[in-house]
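User: quick one, sequence for these C-alpha cells?
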C-alpha cells in the first residue's frame, strides 16, 4: 500500500516559506543579541581590568615611618626618627673610639611593592669623604607591620685623627631612583663615652 502525497498549493507554500523566514529571522536576531551581549561583557571586563591595571600603575610605593637605630653594646640604643634637627653645634650623638656598633632600620611599605631598595651611607670629616657604603636591602611588599633590617657590626675608628666631628648623609632609594629617606646628621667620636648617654 503506497502513501498518497497531496501536492502543496502555492498559497500554502508561500505561508510556510514566510513562517520559516520569520523563524530564521528570530533565531538570527537572538544569535546577534547573544553575540552583542558577549562582546559587551568582554569589553566591560577589559575596561575594568585595564582600569585596575591603571590604578595599580598610578599607585606609587611609599616607605613610611623610617627609623634609624644606633646600637652599641656599652650604651642604650639610640633611635633617630624623622624629622629631627642636627647641626655641627648640636650633634645627635657621640661614639667612643674603637667601640663596636651596628645600625638597624625599621620602616613600613604601603600602596605597592617597592623593588630594589638600597641603603646608601656617606660620611665626611672636615669636608673630606671618609666612608661610603651601599647595602641592598631587597624588595618589600605593602604591610602594616614594620620591616626591620640590621646591618653587620662595625668598629669606630680610633686615634687622634679619628676623633672629632663627622657629617653623615643616609639615603634609602629604590631601583627607579625614588628616594624615600634622605637625612643628614652630625655625630662625633671621642676618646671616652660622654657622661650622659
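Assistant:
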Amino acid at each position: 500500500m503506497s502513501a498518497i502525497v497531496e501536492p502543496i498549493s502555492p498559497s500554502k507554500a508561500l505561508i510556510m516559506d514566510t513562517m520559516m523566514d520569520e523563524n530564521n529571522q528570530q533565531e538570527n536576531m537572538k544569535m546577534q543579541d547573544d553575540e552583542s551581549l558577549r562582546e559587551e561583557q568582554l569589553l566591560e571586563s577589559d575596561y575594568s581590568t585595564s582600569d585596575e591595571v591603571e590604578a595599580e600603575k598610578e599607585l606609587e610605593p611609599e616607605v613610611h615611618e623610617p627609623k634609624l637605630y644606633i646600637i652599641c653594646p656599652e650604651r642604650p640604643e639610640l633611635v633617630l626618627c624623622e624629622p629631627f634637627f642636627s647641626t655641627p653645634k648640636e650633634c645627635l650623638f657621640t661614639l667612643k673610639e674603637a667601640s663596636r656598633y651596628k645600625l638597624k632600620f625599621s620602616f613600613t611599605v604601603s600602596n605597592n611593592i617597592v623593588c630594589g631598595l638600597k641603603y646608601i651611607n656617606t660620611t665626611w670629616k672636615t669636608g673630606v669623604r671618609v666612608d661610603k657604603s651601599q647595602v641592598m636591602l631587597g624588595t618589600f611588599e605593602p604591610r602594616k607591620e614594620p620591616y626591620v633590617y640590621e646591618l653587620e657590626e662595625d668598629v669606630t675608628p680610633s686615634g687622634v685623627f679619628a676623633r672629632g666631628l663627622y657629617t653623615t648623609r643616609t639615603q634609602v632609594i629604590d631601583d627607579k631612583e625614588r628616594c624615600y629617606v634622605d637625612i643628614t646628621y652630625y655625630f662625633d667620636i671621642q676618646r671616652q663615652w660622654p657622661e650622659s648617654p
